[in-house]
Design brief:
By secondary structure, the protein is of the alpha/beta class. Helices cover 53% and strands 16% of the residues. It contains 11 helices and 8 strands. The longest helix is centred in the C-terminal third of the chain and has 18 residues. Bound molecules: SN-glycerol-3-phosphate. SN-glycerol-3-phosphate binds next to helix 7. The site of SN-glycerol-3-phosphate (G3P) has 9 residues, from helix 7.
Length: 225
């Protein structure tokens, strides 16, 4: 399962890339709004930092399919070939997905709350489908189960579309989908860091260091003992 950062905060992206195995970055209009910066300025900075081969997902804003297509082409032209054009999975969006994928652009179907939407997005040629796990949970559904069903629909129909599960609020949601072998998850910085937060592990590592320092002296390592 690929692991992407669902954020446009450059400092957070830099920190996560330094410590974690990260495969790309996703944004949406609300995430870009939080940055308070010009969208292309922040996205270009992210693209330059993650490199031209990493996946960067960027959403169109237009409501009509024809405008989404023009906007999608512009996004790909400005940000490079490994930029996935995110298109909301509504009727107009399906039309735009068909057109852009026929032109060879890579498309991510977003705002997916149901397997029905995901099925149609796959048929429309989307490379990725992004179900909103936690938002589905908040509606009284089961976001993890919904994502698994979509995975099975794609597998059982021989469709090339991969999952890009999104909207996570806890690490358990991420882990259950990793166990199921879905294609990718895009996760906010706090939840990514939560995958590693464990005071028991920290105290075990500290105890090893303390024991070693008792043996050979404070600050010593295997380099200079
Ligand atoms: O990009 C869409 C998705 O990640 C939204 O997440 O946290 O706003 O539900 P959230």
């Amino acid at each position: 399962m690929k692991l992407l950062i669902d954020d446009a905060n450059f400092e957070k992206i830099k920190r996560l890339y330094e410590f974690y195995p990260i495969d790309g970055v996703t944004t949406n209009p609300s995430i870009l709004a939080k940055s308070g910066r010009n969208p292309y300025e922040v996205l270009t900075q992210i693209r330059d930092f993650i490199g031209k081969d990493a996946d960067l997902h960027v959403q169109v804003i237009s409501r009509k399919a024809e405008d989404m297509v023009v906007e999608g082409r512009k996004i790909a032209e400005r940000l490079g070939k490994n930029t996935l054009i995110k298109i909301p999975t509504v009727e107009e969006g399906l039309k735009a997905m068909k057109a852009l994928s026929a032109e060879g652009y890579r498309v991510t179907a977003t705002a997916i709350y149901t397997p029905q939407q995901a099925f149609l997005a796959g048929k429309a040629g989307a490379d990725y489908a992004a179900p909103y796990v936690n938002r589905i949970d908040n509606l009284g559904g089961d976001g993890v189960q919904t994502t698994m069903r979509i995975h099975d629909i794609y597998e059982n129909n021989g469709m090339k579309t991969q999952l890009l599960a999104a909207s996570f609020k806890n690490t358990q949601q991420v882990l259950e989908l990793a166990e199921y072998g879905i294609g990718a998850a895009t996760v906010g910085p706090d939840v990514i860091e939560g995958l590693m937060k464990n005071v028991t592990v920290d105290s075990a590592v500290e105890a090893f260091i303390a024991d070693f320092e008792k043996l050979v002296g404070t600050g010593k390592t295997m380099l200079d003992c």
